[in-house]
Hints:
Blueprint: E1 4-12, E2 16-23, E3 28-31, E4 43-44, E5 47-49, H1 51-57, E6 71-73, H2 74-80, E7 87-89, H3 92-97, E8 101-104, E9 107-110, H4 111-130, E10 133-142, H5 147-159, E11 167-171, H6 172-180, E12 191-198, E13 201-210, E14 216-224, H7 231-234, H8 238-253, E15 258-264, H9 275-280, E16 285-288, H10 292-302, H11 308-311, E17 313-316, E18 323-328, E19 336-340, E20 352-357, E21 362-369, E22 375-381, E23 393-401, E24 406-415, E25 426-432
Parallel strand pairs: 1-10, 10-11, 12-15, 14-17, 15-16
Antiparallel strand pairs: 1-2, 2-3, 2-4, 5-6, 5-7, 8-9, 12-13, 13-14, 18-19, 18-21, 20-23, 21-22, 23-24, 24-25
Helix pairs in contact: 4-5, 6-10
Amino acid sequence: xxxxxxxxxxxxxxxxxxxxxxxxxxxxxxxxxxxxxxxxxxxxxxxxxxxxxxxxxxxxxxxxxxxxxxxxxxxxxxxxxxxxxxxxxxxxxxxxxxxxxxxxxxxxxxxxxxxxxxxxxxxxxxxxxxxxxxxxxxxxxxxxxxxxxxxxxxxxxxxxxxxxxxxxxxxxxxxxxxxxxxxxxxxxxxxxxxxxxxxxxxxxxxxxxxxxxxxxxxxxxxxxxxxxxxxxxxxxxxxxxxxxxxxxxxxxxxxxxxxxxxxxxxxxxxxxxxxxxxxxxxxxxxxxxxxxxxxxxxxxxxxxxxxxxxxxxxxxxxxxxxxxxxxxxxxxxxxxxxxxxxxxxxxxxxxxxxxxxxxxxxxxxxxxxxxxxxxxxxxxxxxxxxxxxxxxxxxxxxxxxxxxxxxxxxxxxxxxxxxxxxxxxxxxxxxxxxx
Length: 435
């Protein structure tokens, strides 16, 4: 029987998850709501465990990989906690950031395990309602690029049995760009503004497009207003909030020409903007949407024509690796051989290179800036390897990033088969591209 192929975009934020799928008929992403809360696309980040329900669900003869007997998530979990006896688990996202564990009915769970379980249950409920279907590609966009969140979300691909080409993780900013660049082109004739008013406060992103350079560049400038503009500061005083936001808007809109403005985040859900809305709409288009990030992730999942508007640009954000990292082959032309190629978000920048050393155990690491073509060179000597004939010492090199500028080159002795076994020595050379 034919199965529907699903292209999914999932937005993971601290309080809520959002899910969207690409509608092949309308050629647009469509957000998903739950039957228990049809008035919102925001799926609460909570789990509920019912011991009674677990016993009944365990009787299912052939549970699927998505089954977690006794567990439910989101709006369904919110409803069950008032109807059944059990355990409610909340603040799951925050617990992952703190690397905490939870005890549920005498069993200890790592927070990252519960986060994955919650996301699987969100997806499972949607897929059950769709009927016969399978995931063709899933893109998860995350509010925090903290390594603990990234590692937890990566486990989702394993649980869902998705191959490497069926799964991606991107930042909110990256998915926001995919959404904006899939809107009509006149909306970005000049710069574009994105305001994100989440539970922590306000962030502003200005998207500048440089078309007279090679490569053409989409430069994103980020201004953090969370300390000065947040829920705690204004409380229920919406007039003061409106005035403060109006002042921010006036300042930012005077800096350059803005073609369009996008507003997202739960802070813009209520109708408090009056003066600020009038200022925003002066000579530019304004759009408000809670599901910009999940739809942007969905555009990225479908790929194809949805990637075309961004294909010709180098995307320069705070998450982008702006350098190629590799080695010089130490030949007459000083040939550069890359380990990783920049241009992607740091947590998606991967690569590995294997080489055979000659009689000199020296490597020349090269960091090459993509936009300026400037290079930084470091020569390192690998100590402690046994004496072997030339070209019989094989080493592997890979790069481990901790953010867009910092990380380490990992060097491993791979030996040379049974003749010269590996010593299992590992060397780590830290780097900082910002220095």
